[in-house]
Amino acid sequence: MKDKFLKFISNPKYIFGIYFLVSALSAIAKYRGGPEKYNNYMIFKNVFTNTLAERNIYLLYPEVHFDSNHYGILFSILIAPFAILPDWLGIVLWNIANTFVFVYAIHKLPFSNPKKAFFAWLCLQEFITAAVSLQFNIALTGLLMLSAVYIYERKETQSAISILIGFFVKLYGIAGLSSFFFIKNKWKFILSFLGFGILFLILPMLISSPHFGLQSYADWFQSLSEKNAANQVLGNRQDYSLMGIVRRISGHADISNLVFLLPGMAVFALPYLRIKQYKNLSFQLMILASTLLFIVLFSSGSESPTFIIAVAGVMIWFIMQKERSLLIIGLLIFVIILTCFSFSDLFPQIIKDNYIMKYSLKALPCCIVWFRIIYELLTKDFEKDYQLD
Q1: Judging by beta carbons within 10 Å of its beta carbon (0-12, 13-18, 19+), is residue 68 exposed, middle or buried?
Q2: pTM over 0.85
Q3: Is 326 exposed, middle or buried, given 0-12, 13-18 or 19+ CB atoms closer than 10 A?
Q4: How far is CA 95 from CA 59, 128, 250, in A?
């Protein structure tokens, strides 16, 4: 019995199957709850219909959905195959497609099958949180991971495409450039990046017009600027970040992002001084882990479903540990309890409302892990101190 259980949890195909099942069932449950329950999908779908009609994709359309879109206009192309389908089918296929990108990225990680399975099991709770919200963050996490995987596989064009899709939809994707210094054929990457960048820029114009496409990029900038200001309001369900923790504990919502971003980027960049470590795949993967955490912890737009990105970074860090001390295991448990389950029934509502949400504590364990990763990147020998298989 024990052997069968171990075989089950160590085989990636079983947990991958659970991922697809969860994505389909969560989408069906949302659809059965009515349009107000799958509001995110209605926003996504309306990006496509508004682009066709050349209506501002960032305005409020209360007759269709509440809240507004904050994704780039390229998203109109990505959502199109699902938007033209009946909602009951489009929602399910949309969630499955996002899941496929994430699962494929896990499959491509240079870990043994048991470690890939372990990675997926540990990410399951955050995956469920994002899947229930029909979030693109699932696919974005996969794209960020693939952008790094393709670089050490020397598939520069595929890496550039992964980065650009994420960037043109949610800006976060540009963080995939954190692996640029590890690229062997930089010219191939640069040319691919420029070529596909131009392609993705003009693609939405093929279903609208050049004027509407260019205007949409300007509208996007304005939309994100307004959203950033709104995210910093104390007590809302955004800004679950390192910045949010400081702003909410101090009670000063007006602290500029730059106060955090400039020193944060300096700390993030310090490990790049260790040029001799570039050749080690474990060093490259640890940079990926740092990147996945950084873009969540230093974004005022981070909300609960965003943390699939950060938790994936935590799991890459943990799985590579050669010697798992009580500190390392304790940090993982801290992440699982406070980050992954902070909004679950594990915590009484009074604790969630008055502490976890009020002070952005969902981000706290990930903050500590990120600083630990920076420490390891600056001090460890990645040729002998880490293991991948």
Answers
A1: middle
A2: yes
A3: exposed
A4: 25, 11, 38
